[in-house]
Amino acid sequence: MAVDAGALSAGPSLRRARLRLSGLLWRRPWLKALGLLAPPLAAFLIVYIGALVALFVASFWTINSFTAAIEHTWTLANYRLIFAGSQPYLHIAALTLEIAAAVTVTDAILAFPLAYFMTRLASRRTRALLFVMVLLPLWSSYLVRIYAWQTILAHDGALNWALNGIGLGDQNLAYTNWAVWIVFSYVWLPFMVLPVYAALERIPDSYLEASADLGARGWKTLRSVILPLALPGLVAGSIFTFSLTLGDYITPLLVGGPSSNFIGIEVYRFIGASNIPLAAAFATIPMLIMGVYLLIARRIGAFEAL
Amino acid sequence: MTTRSSRISLAICSALVIAFLWIPLVIIALYAFNRSNIQGWPITSWTFHWFSVTWHNAEARSALWLSIRVGLATTGIALVLGTMAAAAVARFRFFGRDTVSFLLVLPLALPGIITGTALLRFYSFAHIQVSIWTIVIGHATFCVVVVYNNVVARLRRTSPSLIEASQDLGADGWQTFRFVLWPVLSTALVAGGLLAFALSFDEVIVTYFTAGAQETLPIFILDNIERGQQLPVVNVVAFFVIAITAIPVMLAQRVMRDTGIIRSGAAQVTEAVEAAEIPAV
Amino acid sequence: MRRMRKGHALAVVVLAAVVGAFAASAATVRAGSTAQGGLPTKIGKGEGRLDVIEWPAYTDKSFASKFEKQTGCIIHRKDAGASGDMFSLMHAHGGGGGGQWDLVSASGDASLRLIYAHDVQPVNIKLIPSWKDFLPVFKSPAHNTLNGVHYGVSVQWGPNTLIYNTKKVKPAPTGWSAIYGQKYKGHVTIPNNPIQIADAALYLEKVKPSLGIKDPYELTQAQLTAAVNLLKQQKPLLKRFWNFAPDEDASFKNGDVWIGAGWPYQTLQLKAAKVPVKEIVPLPTTGWADTWMLAAKAPHPNCAYMWMKYVTTPQVEAKQALVFGETPVNPKACSYMNKLEKGSCAGYHLNEPASYYNKIKFWKTPVPQCGWQKSNDCTDYNAWVQAWAQVTG
Hints:
The structure holds three protein chains of three kinds. By secondary structure, chain A is mainly alpha-helical. Helices cover 74% and strands 1% of the residues of chain A. Chain A has helices spanning 5-8, 12-27, 29-58, 77-83, 89-121, 124-135, 142-153, 158-165, 177-201, 205-213, 218-247, 250-255, 263-272, 276-300, and strands spanning 62-63, 70-71. In chain A, helix 2 (12-27) crosses helix 3 and helix 5 (89-121) packs across helix 11 (218-247). The longest helix of chain A is centred in the middle third of the chain and has 33 residues, at 89-121. Chain A is flat, with a radius of gyration of 26 Å. By secondary structure, chain B is an all-alpha fold. Chain B contains twelve helices and no strands. The radius of gyration of chain B is 23 Å and the shape is globular. Chain C is an alpha/beta fold. Chain C is 37% helix and 17% strand. Chain C contains 14 helices and 15 strands. In chain C, helix 6 runs parallel beside helix 14 (381-392) and helix 10 (314-325) crosses helix 11. Chain C is globular and about 60 Å long. Chains in contact: A-B, A-C, B-C. At the A-B interface, helix 2, helix 3, helix 5, helix 6 and helix 7 of A face helix 1, helix 3, helix 4, helix 5 and helix 6 of B.
């Protein structure tokens, strides 16, 4: 790392000024933090958090059924409606949560062996190729990939064609929650592979050698050494799979069945009916779930592994 | 430590997962050649017709170009803001530090429709007309965190003494950044930038609410899917995008690989420092 | 690592104050503007630009570029995927289209909402010469005309038809009861749209007259509950709900679905793909109809009027009908349709007698005002959305 001759020759006064600024920032680090943090935080807070707070506040209001204008009458009616037993919203939330959990577990199971193979066993070339093959699907239009699955799972689709080819009967997965689970697992898989790959890559070979020296066999090493170290990566990936599933409405609409009603779909409909208060009230459920999830994730140190 | 059988089974598992990832993409490519508007299986008549239709479709071209521009702008903003926020959080302890990480993840963690609606109402309040920039801001909200997390993770593994040492040697802030921080950060920035671009390029829900008469590629695809008059055009476009993006992704992978020596070296150093429990200043 | 104190705390306080101020005012009621008083008596000079919210292809270049050349009004379009989205966009930025949009091609399930929310303004139909040629039902339909005031001009429509696979569904069905009975369980499809409740209500009007349903879009709470119960009973018969027309096409072609509610567009597409289907229109049935509505704060009203005038002429109506897959409101388009695609006029049911159209109950936004019993306790669109969640949830 050669010293930058250019900077030195840029004039002694400029250099002195730069050094003085560096000194000032070094002595008063909070100024540096402010300078570093203020623009992004300010932009982010004002734009996003303010809008979210406004939305949350609106969940305590109602709309005029004649003009669709929001009225500032403070009420808990929206929340009472969402949480009422006679209404389907809690059931919808439960279904969404269930699928999100299933998708997360599935992706973890699918991603782990692949990531392990990529980091530990693959040659440099193979690893590069696999990395590209995992990343490339992210670029190929989410919508088109869902449509491809519609074709695959349909009654006369590719899956049945293959199953019939090897002598098995037709499956009836199209337009069911199973289809939603499969498609979600498929679409978010790269988001799980990448953090797990990053986490596994960080484990030095020496740890595994030490574990073997201490007498641990494959499974024990996996359970006691690798998994705990890979856990932050798994949790980081799960933040993606969980949150993206909780909010999505396009996949359940396109590949789901008559009972595949997800939180996202209802929020979308309420907004379309210009019932922002009710949409906001219902949206607090995924907000709360993700809030709790993120707190737990932070405790496990997942933010270090994203 | 891995036995031969476990190596083979891991290789097979990996191959199966990759196949799972790629079979639908192959299907997409096949349907680019389907004559019919309706995606039935198996394909009965094949044609190159849709390739020429797409080639002459000005709307598809401008949508692709708009998505690229939005993606680049978003990635630029995400890189700058994400790095700044990460640098502040990794280096300093201050009130509300943990909350910053939480707040930055929110746009990604919450349903896209919430972000989209919230932003639309904000633009209403601030009398901001929807334009390409409202789309970029919308995308940036959830792309910043991707860069931020990568950089924070990398900085946490970088000993602060590296920066002190550099300054002891007489480098000012800019030189320290250029010669010490940049090599350490570059792979994190490339990875974060790549993911940020991919997220922005393929985003449809937030875009739908924050766009005016601008049509990004996902919006164009959504339109065609809704109408179905020329569905194979969508497949041609998707096929083309996959083929084209293979190049930048491979290049990016190369960048990350080439500086890997420094990366893993820095990691080893950090690990050693931590292991020796040398107190950081 | 040093602790931050004063500076950062100050920054946080300032930011919190800004956030608080924004949050408080962002949630303020933004009253829509009332329609501008006085209708224009002639179309003035074009402003050079037209901003529209449309269903995809409603300003398709194949028939819009001629307009752009003739009038100089360059079209900037935003495609919407659902009626609710159209409403959200028009109602944002203070309503009335926010000064950003001129026209919106609203369907009947959103049009009344736009009118009551003061997002659209009255239109002088005298400035649209083709209006007098329209099929009578589309001149002043209840979904875009209130008390004789026109809030837009009808443009295209489609009936809700019963499509069935001739090989799987035998004997041929004769009415809507075919999709409410057990015979084709697991192979039925209907649209995924709360307005579908009206179809159920229309069916109940016939089979359960004791409910007293007079208008399938003006339902009391008891009538709404009855319609929802019917839909809940129908749900186990469904293979899926369809969202976009191509979804239904794919399901019919793939053999997942044998019978269902659809539009002539799907029938024609399926026939072109050699799928053995037939369509019947069991009257009375529901139908959708689209209106070009003028935004209350339209920045380019002259171009807007020019477009409304242009798109309702027979040749353009025919072109649009075939590009999108729908039926014109101007029957003079019939011959042009047949020239472009033989038999399309009949295929899209444009050549029927007046009595036929009178039996189609076009989409109308459910509002509390109950015309048939002169009260204000009918269920509104919000109640329908919540009722639909009961069906699908």
